[in-house]
Amino acid sequence: MKGKIVYQTEPMKIEVREHEFSEEVEAGSVLLEVLQTNVCGSELHVFKGHHPTLKCGVIGHEMIGRIAKLGDNVKTDNAGNPVQVGDRVVPVYFVTCNQCRECLAGNLHHCIHMYKYQGQSGTFASYYTVHHDQYFFKVPDGVSNAEAASANCAFAQILFGLDKIHINPGDSIVIQGAGGLGLTACAVAKERGAKVIVIDSAPSRLVTAKKFGADELIDMNAYDTLDARVNRVKELTGGWGADFGLEVAGVPDAFSEGIHLVKQNGKYVVMGNITPGHTTAFDPGLLVRKAIEIIPANRYNPEYLYKSLQFLERNAGKYPFAGLLDAAFSLEEATLALEKSANREVTRATILVNK
């Protein structure tokens, strides 16, 4: 079969190449026709050369596909749902071997073999192989392509991260950043009964955050100092500070600010800063005095992809998840999609492979 792939030759340079895809599928594997794939923040890290290991190769990881061919012994997805050619599915984008030290300890999201296919296989392509050591799940009929396309990264990541802090009804959470991760976090936290406070510098993103359940918005243009933002969060939380914090801005200075926004004995999840070597001034004494627990969250355990699809099905029509993908491009326009995303000209770009 012939198709196309988007290949990064070096940072900031990509090519759309004709590619032959094998019709032979290994036992336990699944060949997908890619329907839709998104420009996630991770793609921007790769594109700019900030990823610690991936500098060249086939890019893309967040997607929905249609089963083109099933390998031997594949009759169900990893939740036990029967699958057949033509079904829509979403894959976990990394390897889970279930045999290494990390997997056996329950840390499937840190499998030491997770990057086994990195650069060789990516979702910015006509076809994508779900290998035998990757999980995948069938998309419910009531969930659209646009909604499901973000499930295997942004959505699953948020559910995994927020499960680490156990939000209860009436708790408050301050979310730093109203991009795709932050908006998803708004909806998830709202469904758990939290008071949701969102901080961002883009007015359009703050308007969108309201549609995803945000109760209070803090515009960094109006509250333009750390003290102003801290005081505003305290005003909104009875003078205490937020019970929980979530950093999804991807800006090192947001991390150092976070412990100022969270109350004493609060918990702070760090998710957006994923590039090693980028630093910020930090006050460890304040961290100790306030006894704040910092919780990093990188990737997710595979079951969270299934939970994401369940959340989308359960809350169909309640939040405008499909609208998060506010700009569509073809494979040939992949460079443009990446550039507009990097310049924050779009909230979240998507690539329609057959556009």
Explained architecture:
With 355 residues, this protein is of the alpha/beta class. The protein folds into 2 domains: 2-153 and 300-352, Quinone Oxidoreductase, Chain A, domain 1; 165-296, NAD(P)-binding Rossmann-like Domain (Rossmann fold, 3-Layer(aba) Sandwich). It contains 11 helices and 16 strands. The strands form 3 sheets. Strands 3, 5, 6, 7, 8, 15 and 16 form a 7-stranded mixed beta sheet that branches. A 6-stranded parallel beta sheet has the order 11-10-9-12-13-14, with helices on both faces. The protein has a 3-stranded antiparallel beta sheet with strand order 2-1-4, with no helix packed on it. The radius of gyration is 20 Å and the shape is globular. The model has no long low-confidence stretch (mean pLDDT 93). It comes from Paenibacillus validus. Keywords: Metal-binding, Oxidoreductase, Zinc. Residues 8-353 form the Enoyl reductase (ER) domain. Belongs to the zinc-containing alcohol dehydrogenase family.
* Share of helical residues: 25-40%
Number of helices: 11
Shape: globular
The total domain count is 2
Mean pLDDT rating:
93
Any low-confidence stretches, pLDDT <50, length ≥5?
none
Distance between the termini: 19 Å
Specify the oligomeric state: single chain
Quickly name the level 1 CATH class of the largest domain: Alpha Beta
Structural class: alpha/beta
Instruction: Give the strand content.
Output: 15-25%
Could you tell me the radius of gyration in angstroms? 20 Å
Largest sheet geometry: 7 strands, mixed
- CATH topology annotation of the largest domain: Quinone Oxidoreductase, Chain A, domain 1
**How many strand units?**
16
Q: Write the CATH architecture name of the largest domain.
A: Alpha-Beta Complex
CATH superfamily membership of the largest domain: Medium-chain alcohol dehydrogenases, catalytic domain
Order of helices and strands: EEEHEEEHEEHHEHEHEHEHEHEHEHE
Organism: Paenibacillus validus
InterPro entries: ADH-like_C (IPR013149), ADH-like_N (IPR013154), ADH_Zn_CS (IPR002328), ER (IPR020843), GroES-like_sf (IPR011032), NAD(P)-bd_dom_sf (IPR036291), Zn_alcohol_dh (IPR050129)
Family: Belongs to the zinc-containing alcohol dehydrogenase family.
Cofactor: Zn(2+)
